[in-house]
């Protein structure tokens, strides 16, 4: 799974001996062999090149990856260690070895770890007390550069410090100085420095950002960092690197280019603490993985291996040979307007994927509103939806699918922003299930059931029912168990349209679904409201869901909430198996045997066909 295949041999020649070949490598489908023996002998050479993808290029996408063979769901397609690892641009002072924030306040120690700074003896940069951080290869780059200049003096360890914006550039310059091959790979990645300049100029004088059309999404056209601010900070960083750190050998233009490469290709790596909370985020830039295109209905998923910060790309669904491989650069549960604005502002392209081109978002209606026209409501029972006439023209009217009545963008955005404000207020009450349910009820009168605001709330609710200290799953009323199941099922239907296959969100929701479904089935069986066969059938279904949770959430990093769920599901599956065996034992004592076999769940073809069926 290393680099690209150079493809020197023709496909029908054995890669080892040049004889006529009649079978291809099943891993990459790119090289052929005359015999199994020659394939085995060639493996040492070929294994560095054997991969299920190739890099292609198109005018629309630039470089992208395409499958060279059929790929099954859940296969590892790429695993890569970072070319560059750096703290995010905006960060309070942190140790540059372990990336922990400094904290010397004894009163805060319950919430935050005690991390005392001390200056690195070589460069003066503040580091934690661990010697291995000072000696770490990652810190070596800025250490060598800062050594000549002396470290930055930091007085307040509790607020973001702008000098950390330079670390990424200093680390790229470290590659230039010591690892020129890696530096060349880094320089070969996509930069948008020109487009950035144009956008910054446009944003500086733009009133369009604040128009009603821009306010169709949750950000109302206002993104965390305005483009002209981004440009100003970038220019300051270039000056700090050349002036303060004395890297006069690189001109400002080169530094701006390096920053743009980091921003276009960087992946945020969330690092969980031992309690599963994400308390650190790093930015990693990778080589081949950078060529993955964005799609709002991606066919691949990414996870990180915390041991070496490797980025692991897996297929989320079965992928046919010749298909483009894609991940989502944004949250797939956002509406079209938010996704497109975000991609335009941060990655400088207009997404033209099938989901963005479809005003119904592949039938998921993540941005649609309910038609309020009286006549239409009478006819459809309040069930018709209003969609944009043209998803790419934010000024165009919206239209009801049934009555064809049109609505101005101003009208649509006034509804969306009003509900957005209610949602913001509700954020303070997150965890308050009745308040959240009231929000769902009220805003469902105006929004499609799968509108992005409702999806966000439903994802929270599905994970809250049965997980609060005063109402754990064991004591959740059947009515609430049913509501939890309903929420999970609704969400899974939406995911199958816009975020299909193996992904962490689907894993988390299936975890909740199986827990509630299992509990409800047990209650009904115990109350004599469900026959044995049906109960066993439902437990078997829960077992299948658990198996998927164990697989998908098991890919997530150690300590993460997801990994904890996977471990929990593994224990629950064991308990479930024992329970089924004991029920079967009891029933066998009395009468006929049941055909349900829980051992089938481990490795049976049944599981594979179940997964295919679900996708
Ligand atoms: C991480 S890079 C991907 C590789 C890049 N195409 C290249 O040639 O190096 C991200 C950039 O690729 C382009 N890109 C990715 N997905 C795209 C898409 N769906 N449509 C158009 N451009 C896309 C955009 O220019 C984006 O900023």
TrEMBL record:
Signal peptide: none annotated. Residues 51-330 form the SET domain. Keywords: Metal-binding, Zinc, Zinc-finger. Transmembrane segments: none annotated. Pfam families: SET, zf-MYND. It comes from the Eukaryota. Residues 584-615 are annotated as: Disordered. Residues 14-50 form the MYND-type domain. InterPro entries: SET_dom (IPR001214), SET_dom_sf (IPR046341), SET_SmydA-8 (IPR053010), Znf_MYND (IPR002893). Residues 584-595 have a biased composition (Low complexity). Residues 604-615 have a biased composition (Basic and acidic residues). This is Protein msta. The lineage of its organism: Eukaryota, Metazoa, Ecdysozoa, Arthropoda, Hexapoda.
């Amino acid at each position: 799974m290393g680099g690209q295949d150079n493809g020197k041999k023709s496909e029908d020649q054995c890669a080892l001996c040049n004889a006529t070949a009649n079978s291809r490598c099943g891993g990459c489908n790119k090289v052929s062999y005359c015999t199994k023996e020659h394939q085995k002998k060639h493996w040492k050479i070929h294994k560095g090149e054997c991969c299920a993808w190739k890099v292609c290029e198109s005018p629309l996408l630039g470089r992208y990856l395409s499958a060279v063979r059929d790929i099954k769901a859940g296969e590892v397609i790429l695993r890569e260690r970072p070319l560059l690892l750096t703290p995010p641009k905006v960060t309070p002072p942190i140790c540059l070895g372990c990336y922990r924030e400094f904290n010397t306040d004894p009163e805060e120690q319950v919430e935050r770890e005690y991390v005392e700074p001390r200056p690195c003896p070589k460069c003066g940069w503040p580091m934690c007390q661990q010697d291995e951080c000072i000696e770490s290869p990652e810190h070596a780059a800025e250490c060598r550069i800062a050594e000549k200049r002396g470290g930055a003096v930091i007085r307040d360890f509790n607020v973001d410090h702008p000098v950390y914006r330079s670390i990424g550039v200093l680390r790229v310059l470290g590659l230039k100085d010591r690892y020129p091959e890696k530096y060349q790979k880094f320089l070969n990645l996509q930069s948008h420095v020109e487009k950035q300049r144009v956008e910054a100029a446009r944003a500086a004088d733009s009133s369009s950002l604040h128009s009603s059309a821009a306010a169709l999404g949750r950000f109302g056209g206002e993104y965390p960092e305005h483009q002209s601010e981004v440009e100003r900070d970038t220019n300051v960083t270039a000056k700090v690197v050349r002036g303060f750190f004395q890297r006069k050998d690189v001109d400002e233009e080169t530094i701006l280019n390096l920053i743009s490469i980091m921003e276009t290709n960087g992946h945020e790596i969330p690092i969980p603490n031992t309690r599963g909370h994400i308390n650190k985020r790093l930015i990693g830039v990778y080589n081949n993985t950078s060529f993955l295109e964005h799609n709002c209905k991606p066919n691949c998923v990414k996870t990180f291996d915390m041991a070496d910060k490797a980025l692991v790309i897996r297929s989320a669904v079965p992928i046919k040979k010749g298909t483009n491989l894609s991940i989502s650069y944004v949250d797939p549960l956002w509406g079209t307007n938010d996704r497109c604005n975000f991609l335009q502002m941060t990655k400088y392209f207009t997404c033209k994927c099938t989901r963005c081109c479809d005003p119904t978002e592949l039938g998921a209606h993540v941005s649609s509103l309910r038609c309020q026209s009286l006549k239409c409501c009478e006819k459809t029972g309040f069930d018709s939806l209003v969609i944009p006439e043209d998803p790419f023209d934010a000024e165009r009217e919206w239209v009801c699918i049934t009555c064809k009545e049109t609505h101005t963008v101003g009208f649509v955005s006034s509804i969306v922003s009003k509900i957005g404000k209610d949602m913001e207020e509700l954020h303070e009450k997150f965890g308050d299930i009745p308040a959240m349910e009231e929000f769902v009820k009220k805003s469902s009168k105006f929004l499609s059931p799968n509108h992005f605001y409702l999806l966000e709330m439903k994802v929270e609710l599905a994970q809250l029912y049965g997980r609060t200290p005063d109402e754990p799953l064991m004591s959740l009323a059947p009515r609430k168990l049913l509501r939890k199941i309903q929420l999970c099922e609704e969400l899974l239907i939406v995911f199958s349209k816009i975020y299909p296959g193996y992904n962490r969100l689907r894993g988390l929701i299936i975890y909740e679904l199986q827990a509630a479904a299992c509990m409800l089935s047990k209650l009904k069986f115990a109350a004599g409201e469900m026959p044995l066969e049906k109960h066993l059938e439902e437990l078997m279904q829960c077992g299948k869901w658990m198996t998927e949770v164990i697989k998908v959430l098991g890919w997530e990093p150690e300590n993460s909430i997801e990994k904890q769920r996977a471990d929990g599901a593994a224990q629950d599956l064991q308990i479930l198996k024992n329970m089924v065996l004991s029920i079967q034992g009891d029933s066998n004592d009395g009468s006929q045997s049941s055909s349900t076999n829980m051992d089938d769940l481990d490795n049976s073809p049944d599981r594979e066909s179940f997964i295919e069926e679900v996708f």
